[in-house]
Amino acid sequence: MPISEADLAMAATTNETVAVNPVSDGALTYQTITETANDLIRSFIERTPYFVAALIVIIIFWLLSIVFKKALNTAGIDMPFPVRTLDLSHPSVKAIAKQIHEQQAAHVDSLGVD
């Protein structure tokens, strides 16, 4: 709806605010949504070099771990990673296990459990 010059003159004399080009709520909402989406896309694109740098660092450390593990294997060094390996075949370990078993059997006998 256009505003006449008479209405503008009257508004100017009475210090009223007159909207010359009113924007509908739907257009304003659409504009807000598109600005937000554009800001998100722009900020993602701005951060892309950091993502690439982080990915490169991860790949470098992964490759270094492979090289390090191969160097240890060729040197004959066994590194139980990431699994902890317990070697219970040593005679002293077997003697200790036998002692513990005998103590448990004596304890069970003292309780009178069948």
Provide an overview of this structure:
The radius of gyration is 40 Å and the shape is elongated. The chain has helices at residues 5-14, 25-75, 91-111. The mean pLDDT is 80. The chain is mainly α. The chain has one domain (5-111). It has three helices and no strands. Helix content is 72%, strand content 0%.
Which features does this protein show?
72% helix, mainly alpha, elongated, 114 residues
Helix content: over 70%
SSE sequence, one letter per element? HHH
User: Beta fraction of the residues?
Assistant: under 5%
DSSP E strands, number: 0
Mean pLDDT: 80
Extract low-pLDDT stretches. Answer: none
Structural class determined from secondary elements: mainly alpha
Strand count, sense and barrel status of the largest sheet are: none
Number of helices: 3
How many structural domains does the protein architecture include?
Answer: 1
**Ends distance:** 101 Å
Shape: elongated
Radius of gyration (CA) equals: 40 Å
